[in-house]
UniProtKB/TrEMBL annotation, chain A:
It is a multi-pass membrane protein. Belongs to the binding-protein-dependent transport system permease family. Keywords: Membrane, Transmembrane, Transmembrane helix, Transport. SUPFAM superfamilies: MetI-like. The chain crosses the membrane at residues 54-75, 178-202, 214-235. InterPro entries: ABC_transp_perm/SBD (IPR051204), MetI-like (IPR000515), MetI-like_sf (IPR035906). It comes from Methylobacterium iners. It comes from the Bacteria. It is found in: Cell membrane. This is ABC transmembrane type-1 domain-containing protein. Its main location: membrane. Residues 50-236 form the ABC transmembrane type-1 domain.
UniProtKB/TrEMBL annotation, chain B:
It is found in: Cell membrane. This is Glycine betaine uptake system permease protein YehY. The chain crosses the membrane at residues 7-29, 49-71, 78-100, 112-133, 140-165, 185-205, 212-237, 249-269, 308-334, 354-376. Belongs to the binding-protein-dependent transport system permease family.
Length: 252, 386
């Protein structure tokens, strides 16, 4: 059960920050902070960057979800038991390479632009997603699984009708973390020449122009907070559907 | 019947690992020779290298992987560790010698950089070595292998075996810069951990307003680091405009201040969670007994809560430190310097070896912090079992 205010908080902060990225508001804000009122990023350019940001993060996230959840399901099958021990270690090792470094390392391989960003995003997020999926499926109570086998469900039915529905809540939580990471990594992609909301931040820092920097920062943060709030709402809705079914299946 | 399938899968996995190792070593270029440090070089395969060292490395590595999959128990894992470690050492040696041979007698600007086959082979060997060490269940083996490779690596470096590789040339050219950046990076990340630790300890005391603090601390995690750093630059410059005397004290909007504050902000969550969990770790009955024995709250904190919570605290510190090393990289963006500066210079020049020169120490630092504090955490758990 997610308390309403944990959804409302990020959502309100997100809307406030989105408002702050508007050219006029950002310029006023910069003046209040004592900077010169220099040229702001026009609204249509900001929207274009935002859409591009969403598209890149979405592509990366779709790849992460497909591969992470798919491999996670494979890793929890009986035949893969000896591989499972390695997953935690590999996930920890992958986290030792921060997203900025991932983007930088992907740069010589793929050149400037979107591709190194997507590669970095996938490389950084896939192991946490895989580990989260494995953890979620392993957390399904053995009684539920055995009961399903006892009533004659095939392995495929056990997976689709028992394991995945019961694991969905935790998998969705992992996906939320991956989403936040995706938005952040895509912003860092601005350093590798991808046109994202990170671009005005990097450009503003280089030109010492506070206005686009504020706009980029506020818009990036707003995007992350709003996406997070949307998924939180989705997760709490899913949990409300799932709890009766889950309770029935875990305590037969 | 149940035991057979995992065993077969282990053999299958080690067989595919061995195939992958041989495939990347012989199917992909292991070295690239370029006219200068910025262009992509011509590929050279393992067969082009002089001598048999690389073939020996491939054979030993594949053998080690097969033994890891086929032989159960400590002896098999130990043998696999020995074979894989030898293979890794031979591979590095072969690449260094091969690079020296291929650039001998050519202009000094010519560079020999590692090809995709070499990187992937090192990755496969390193991963399987880690798995073999884990399978051996010997707690001292991991640190022993790490120590031995550090000694061997230093010896090979001193002997100049690796000097022909482009990465080594790049390092020689920027020895001071990289050293200074490393020092700065350590200062930034350790400073941020210290700052966040202090704030987390201060925030742990008051009972009121806990929900709001929790909400804010976890809300920060959602904000992308690049946005927070940018926002902090704007805020600090506003603060400096409002109170110009701060400038005289050495504060500036670009520099270590936003990086330190921004990094520390992200560390609040793991440290705060760890601190709360650590203080709540002792059984209430133990605390009641301590109070009944007449211990003061201060003694209860120092002699019961902190020792019993020590493993959790060290675990939180481990997460925070690894995050801190990564986040400090982004600090270079706001002018804080550190290893991120080397990475960004490499990106600006499109020089892959310079990017690696910054990236490798960051990865090694995170990895070393994770391993060392992991050992400390396990030690604390043995010393003070919950």
């Amino acid at each position: 059960m997610t308390p309403r205010r944990t959804i409302l908080g990020p959502a309100l902060a997100g809307f406030a920050l989105a408002l702050g990225s508007h050219p006029e508001v950002a310029r006023r804000l910069a003046v209040t902070l004592g900077a010169e009122p220099r040229r702001a990023l026009p609204l249509d350019r900001l929207l274009e960057l935002g859409l591009n940001h969403l598209a890149l993060a979405g592509i990366g996230l779709a790849l992460v979800a497909l591969m992470g959840i798919g491999l996670g399901i494979l890793a929890t099958r009986d035949f893969a038991a000896p591989l499972r021990a390695g997953i935690d270690g590999a996930a920890a090792a992958a986290q030792a390479v921060p997203p900025v470094v991932m983007v930088a390392l992907a740069l010589p391989v793929l050149g400037f632009g979107g591709p190194p960003t997507v590669l970095a995003l996938v490389a950084y997020s896939i192991m946490p997603m895989l580990r989260g999926t494995v953890g979620a499926i392993e957390a399904v109570s053995p009684e539920a699984r055995q009961a399903a086998i006892a009533i004659g469900l095939s392995p495929r039915q056990v997976l689709l009708q028992v394991e995945l529905p019961l694991a969905a809540g935790i998998i969705l939580d992992t996906f939320r973390t991956a989403l936040v990471l995706a938005v952040a990594t895509t912003a860092v992609g601005g350093l590798a020449g991808a046109s994202t909301l990170g671009t005005p931040i990097v450009a503003g820092l280089q030109n010492q122009n506070l206005v686009p920097m504020l706009q980029g920062a506020a818009a990036t943060a707003a995007l992350a907070l709003l996406c997070d709030a949307a998924l939180l709402a989705a997760a709490s809705r899913l949990r409300r559907w799932n709890i009766p079914a889950g309770r029935g299946a875990t305590c037969p | 019947m149940n035991g057979r399938t995992p065993q077969a899968a282990a053999i299958g996995a080690s067989l595919s690992g061995a195939t992958l190792l041989v495939g990347v070593l012989y199917g992909l270029p292991v070295l690239r020779i370029a006219a200068n440090r910025l262009v992509v070089g011509l590929p050279f395969a393992a067969a082009d290298l002089p001598g048999w060292t690389i073939d020996a490395a491939a054979g030993l590595g594949a053998g080690g992987l097969l033994i890891l999959g086929a032989v159960r128990g400590r002896a098999g894992a130990g043998l696999a560790v020995a074979l894989l470690a030898t293979a890794l050492a031979l591979l590095v040696q072969a690449l260094g010698a091969g690079a020296a041979e291929l650039i001998a007698g050519r202009p000094p600007a010519v560079r020999a950089s590692l090809g995709s086959g070499a990187w992937l082979a090192v990755g496969v060997l390193g991963t399987s070595l880690a798995l073999a060490i884990r399978a051996s269940r010997l707690p001292w083996l991991g640190p022993a292998v790490l120590g031995a490779s550090a000694v061997l690596g230093t010896l090979a470096w001193q002997a100049g075996s690796l000097a022909a590789l482009s990465l080594a040339v790049e390092y020689e050219a920027r020895r001071e810069v990289v050293g200074a950046a490393l020092g700065r990076h350590l200062l930034l990340s350790l400073g941020a951990v210290l700052l966040a630790g202090l704030v987390a300890a201060l925030l742990a005391a008051p009972r009121r307003g806990r929900g709001v603090v929790d909400l804010a601390v976890s809300g920060i995690q959602v904000v992308p680091a690049i946005a927070l750093f940018g926002g902090l630059v704007a805020l600090i410059s506003g603060l400096l405009n409002a109170a110009p005397t701060l400038r005289d004290w050495g504060f500036s909007a670009l520099g270590p201040a936003p990086a330190l504050l921004g990094t520390a902000a992200y560390l609040l969550l793991p440290l705060r969670r760890g601190l709360t969990a650590a203080l709540d770790a002792p059984d209430p009955a133990v605390l009641d007994a301590a109070t009944a024995m007449g211990l003061t709250p201060r003694e209860i904190l120092m002699r019961i809560r902190l020792p019993l919570g020590a493993p959790i605290l060290i675990g939180a510190l481990r997460v925070a430190l690894v995050q801190s090393f990564g986040l400090a990289t982004l600090g270079a963006l706001v002018g804080a310097g550190g290893l991120g500066q080397v990475v960004f210079d490499g990106m600006a020049q499109f020089a892959p070896d310079l990017i690696l020169l910054g990236a490798i120490p960051i990865v090694l630092l995170s990895f070393a912090a994770d391993q060392a504090l992991g050992v400390a955490e396990a030690g604390a758990r043995r010393r003070w079992p919950a």
